[in-house]
Amino acid sequence: MTQIPVNQYGDKILRKKTIPVQKIDPETIKFVKDMFETMHEASGVGLAANQVGSSKSVFVVDISVMKDYPNEKPRVFINPKIVERSEETDSYEEGCLSIPDVRAEVIRPKKIKILFKDLEFNDQTLEVDDFLARVIQHEYDHLQGIYFTDRIPEDQQKNLKES
Ligand code: ZN
Fold first, then answer.
1. Rounded to the nearest whole angstrom, what is the distance from the C-alpha of residue 50 to the centroid of ligand 1?
2. Distances in Å between the alpha carbon of 24 and those of 8, 79, 92, 119?
3. I need a surface site. Which of 30, 34, 125, 152 has the fewest CB within 10 A?
């Protein structure tokens, strides 16, 4: 396995919408393994493909490092689509491996339903809430070229500049 450098705020690829994966090949499987290694090494709970230089529509999540979720398993989401979002929202302080020095409260739907493919390219459906739903929404945003800081008030964005 190999760690991959994480793109930082301002890198063009982080504003590009990602492209659906057409098939799972050995290269894709290795890439996903490398994503997990990169995320774990950086002590992150989620990582999107464009954060590590790929335009594939893929992100990985593992919240088991959080003390409240020791039994959560690592998850990979391929070609994800969020199809339902609850009206109920909550707020939580987020950070991002691509914006290391910034943390901010972000309001998001509390519960979501997401369709995606797994690493065998089978269709999956997941309904989740609370912290896992938040992490998934954060990573899903990356695949659309959206940072969590796009979702905070403008006056809190003033120190962020894209080249
Ligand atoms: Zn992020």
1. 10
2. 27, 11, 34, 7
3. 125
- Measured distance CA(150)–CA(16) in Å, rounded: 14
Q: How far is the CA of 27 from the centre of ligand 1 (A)?
A: 23
CATH code, residues 12-162 = 3.90.45.10
Distance from Cα 138 to the centre of ligand 1, integer Å: 6
| Burial degree of 43 (CB within 10 A; 0-12, 13-18, 19+) | exposed
Ligand 1: centre distance to CA 152 (Å)? 14
- Asked if residues 107 and 90 have their Cβ atoms less than 8 Å apart, the reply is yes
How far, rounded to the nearest angstrom, does the alpha carbon of residue 150 sit from its chain's CA centroid?
15
Q: Tens digits of per-residue pLDDT, 15-33?
A: 999 999 999 999 999 999 9
Q: Which positions of the chain have pLDDT values less than 50?
A: none
What the block records as the tokens of 87 is 């009206």
